[in-house]
Predict the structure.
Amino acid sequence: MATTRLIDTAVGILVGWRQCSTQAAFRELLAASERQQVPLFAMAGALVNLASRGTDPHDADRAAEREWGDQLSPATADDRPRRSTVDRWL
C-alpha cells in the first residue's frame, strides 16, 4: 500500500508539473525508470524527495494549523455550530 501511495504521489507531482493526464505521467515515470535502469518504486521515491527538497516540514505544519486548526480542534458543546436540518427530498 505504501509503495502504491508513493507512485501515486510521484504521478501527482508530474501531473501538476507537466499539466498532463495521470496516464501520461505514469508512462513518463515508468519510461524514466527504464531509461535510468532504476526500479519504479525507487524512481518514484527519488522524484518525491526531489520535489520536497528545500521545504521545512515544520513550515507546512504551521501553515496547516493556521489554515484549519480552529476547525479541527475539539469543541465544547457550547462552541459547536448549530446545524440546521436538511430536507433530503430537495
Remarks:
- The chain has a mean pLDDT of 84.
- Helices lie at 2-18, 22-36, 40-52, 57-72.
- The two ends are 40 Å apart (CA to CA).
